[in-house]
Specification:
By secondary structure, the chain is α+β, with helices and mostly antiparallel strands. The chain has helices at 2-15, 20-64, 72-86, 126-129, and strands spanning 92-102, 107-117, 144-154, 166-174. It has one domain.
Length: 200
C-alpha cells in the first residue's frame, strides 16, 4: 500500500510540467544575452578597425597626389580629417613617412617622417626601417614609398574577453602618383607653391 502510494506520487511528480518554461528561461536567457552582447562587441571592434583602415587609406591616397610638397599644416589637417572620418571621438594617432630604397646597400632610409596625435608612435628613423624588408615592399633603387600608419585604442563597452581594450593599428603603402618624390617643408627638395601671376 505504502509502495503503491509512493509510485503514484512519483509518477505524478515526473509528469508535472508547471514551471518548466521558467526553469528553461532562467538557464537560457543569460546565455542568450551574453551571446548577443558578445556579438555586438565584436562587430563594434570590426567597425572601429574598418573605419580606421578607410581613413588611413584616404590620407595615403591624398598625399600620393600632391606635387608641390607637404607642410606642417597639411599633416595637422590630415589628422583632423582622420578624426572626422572615424567620427567616434577615439584617441587616434597617425604617422606619415616617406621611405626610399638604396639598392647598393640593400637598405631603406627615411626621407621624412611626421607624427600627429597621442599614442606610442614616434617619427621613424633610418634605424627603424633600414632592414625592414619583411614589412616594406620591394622597391627599385632610389624609389620612394609613402607609408601612412595609424594607431587607436578601442575601449570595450562590455566585458566579453577583450580585457581593458584593444590597440588597433593600420599600415598603408602607396607611391607618389604625379611626381617622383613627395617632399616635406624644410627639406632640400621642397618647392613652395608659386603664386599665380597677376592677370592683366
Amino acid at each position: 500500500m505504502k509502495q503503491s502510494f509512493m509510485k503514484r506520487v512519483m509518477r505524478r511528480f515526473c509528469g508535472e510540467r508547471d514551471g518548466s518554461v521558467m526553469v528553461e528561461t532562467v538557464i537560457c536567457l543569460p546565455l542568450l544575452v551574453l551571446g548577443l552582447v558578445a556579438t555586438w562587441e565584436f562587430y563594434e571592434v570590426h567597425r572601429y578597425k574598418s573605419a580606421r583602415e578607410k581613413a588611413t587609406y584616404t590620407i595615403a591616397d591624398m598625399i600620393s597626389r600632391e606635387t608641390p610638397g607637404i607642410t606642417d599644416t597639411y599633416i595637422d589637417n590630415a589628422m583632423k580629417l582622420f578624426d572626422g572620418i572615424t567620427n567616434d571621438d577615439g584617441a587616434n594617432q597617425i604617422r606619415v613617412s616617406v621611405v626610399r630604397f638604396d639598392a647598393a646597400k640593400n637598405e631603406y632610409y627615411i626621407r621624412w617622417s611626421e607624427t600627429r596625435g597621442a599614442g606610442s608612435y614616434t617619427d621613424l628613423t633610418d634605424t627603424d626601417v633600414a632592414t625592414a624588408h619583411s614589412i616594406l615592399p620591394i622597391l627599385g633603387d632610389g624609389e620612394d614609398l609613402i607609408l601612412v600608419e595609424s594607431e587607436s585604442d578601442y575601449k570595450p563597452t562590455f566585458k566579453v574577453g577583450l580585457g581593458s581594450g584593444v590597440t588597433i593599428t593600420t599600415r598603408i603603402f602607396t607611391k607618389p602618383r604625379f611626381t617622383g618624390q613627395i617632399c616635406f617643408e624644410g627639406s632640400s627638395c621642397y618647392q613652395p607653391p608659386q603664386a599665380a601671376p597677376p592677370s592683366t
